[in-house]
Design goal:
CATH architecture of the largest domain: Up-down Bundle
Low-confidence stretches: none
Number of strands: 8
Order of helices and strands: HHHHHEEEEEEEEHHHHHH
Helix content: 40-55%
Largest sheet: 4 strands, mixed
Strand content: 5-15%
CATH topology of the largest domain: Butyryl-CoA Dehydrogenase, subunit A, domain 3
Mean pLDDT: 92
Shape: globular
Distance between the termini: 49 Å
Structural class: alpha+beta
CATH superfamily of the largest domain: Butyryl-CoA Dehydrogenase, subunit A, domain 3
CATH class of the largest domain: Mainly Alpha
Radius of gyration: 22 Å
């Protein structure tokens, strides 16, 4: 099923409504409940859920396209759905058939959301002892399940999350993994789990990416994801959905900025020449720069998504795709920030007006830098792969 088959008019209507509400949500620090409800009412919360589970069966490319539309209207709503879609897509390859049937059926029928599992931050971990202090959540085995304590930081969409996948520091004595982490699926609300209203940042304000604290929260055995102690190995394919979904959000921001700038060139009159600014060379150069960056970013994003779709069919994600998703995240998000800056130059001083579209987008787009991996780590990984440097014990050889 394509976006066209799902009534592109409906999606366009939703995006328009989201854009009309976005300023108020940002200004009043409100959660986008209405936006999420409308997406759920249209069945779009199960866009990339497999068809056999009652979803629309969107692949990488279609999911990225949908997220771009949503994020063009409201970046915070797009970010919440990006985390939901990434988990839906990725965990459809990880959960047991029994887990998938129960969880996905509830998500589909009840309109529930699933959170991101978060980055385990283990790219350059080579020995178990190096894990000390890295996990922020611990688990201990108990009768019938696990007792979990610790904190999961910045859970995007926290007020609406029911399913919360987490990485915990726990491994049986027989585990030989260099990481020794276990993945569990918590359901909220749960006794001992508390949301701290910690999100007070200038970007993505409406996403309410709060911290969630755990104090001896019980998670039953049947909510174990993969094998005890081998969470990293069993969920390694999650990164492809994560990187592409998150990148699509910032491409949506870039599209919103570009379309706004186009409109401004015909609305604004140059005070000296008395002509519409669209006829001024400087504005034309900026529009051209934005168009070039936007189209190249779109091509990079789509090509990467198409490769991911092809490799998913083959049930094998390649080392080449791993590198391309890193390149795509870096290139597209950097281009998005540059496009927003150029759009501000097109509009002029009024783009700095608090609460204006470009003032908000300039805050939202800056959040791209803080999705893992960081720019320094991303470039280090790419370079080491290209140079054939494979450190076995130490990160820096």
């Amino acid at each position: 099923m394509t976006l066209t088959e799902l009534r592109q008019e409906t999606i366009d209507r939703l995006v328009l409504q989201f854009s009309e509400r976005a300023s108020q949500l940002d200004d009043e620090f409100q959660f986008p409940d209405r936006n999420l409800d409308e997406l759920i009412d249209c069945g779009l919360h199960v866009a990339n859920m497999p068809k056999q589970d009652g979803g629309l069966g969107y692949r990488f490319e279609e999911t990225v396209t949908l997220l771009t539309h949503i994020s063009k209207g409201c970046a915070s709503t797009g970010l919440i759905m990006a985390m939901h879609y990434y988990s839906l897509g990725a965990f459809s390859e990880v959960l047991t058939s029994e887990q998938q049937a129960a969880v996905f059926d509830d998500i589909r029928r009840s309109g529930e959301l699933i959170a991101s599992v978060s980055d385990p931050n283990v790219i350059f971990i080579y020995q178990r002892k190096q894990m000390d202090g890295i996990p922020t959540i611990t688990a201990e085995k108990t009768d019938g399940g696990y007792l979990v304590s610790g904190t999961k930081f910045t859970v995007t969409g926290a007020p609406r999350i029911k399913y919360l996948p987490i990485y915990c520091q726990y491994a049986p004595s027989s585990c030989t993994s260099q990481y020794g982490m276990t993945a569990l699926l918590m359901t909220l609300p749960s006794e001992g789990a508390a949301i701290e209203e910690s999100w007070n940042y200038s970007g993505m304000r409406a996403s309410m990416s709060h911290h969630i604290h755990f104090d001896q929260v019980f998670i039953p055995d049947h909510q174990l994801i993969g094998r005890e102690g081998y969470a990293i190995e069993d969920t390694e394919n999650l990164i492809y959905w994560f990187r592409l979904a998150v990148t699509a959000v910032y491409f949506g921001i870039a599209k919103a900025a570009y379309e706004h700038a186009l409109g401004m060139t015909y609305k604004r009159i140059d005070r000296i020449s008395k002509k519409k600014s669209a006829f001024l060379p400087g504005q034309q150069f900026r529009i051209a720069d934005m168009k070039i960056k936007l189209d190249v970013a779109h091509n990079q994003l789509m090509a990467c998504a198409q490769q991911a779709d092809q490799e998913k069919k083959q049930n094998h994600y390649s080392s080449d795709l791993y590198t391309k998703t890193l390149i795509t995240k870096h290139f597209v998000t950097q281009a998005a920030e540059e496009i927003v800056q150029l759009a501000s130059q097109v509009e002029g001083f009024s783009s700095l007006q608090q609460g204006s579209l470009l003032e908000r987008l300039s805050r939202d787009v800056k959040a791209a830098k803080f999705h893992p991996p960081s720019e320094d780590l991303l470039k280090e990984v790419i370079a080491k792969k290209e140079l054939g440097i494979i450190p076995l014990k130490n990160r820096w050889v």
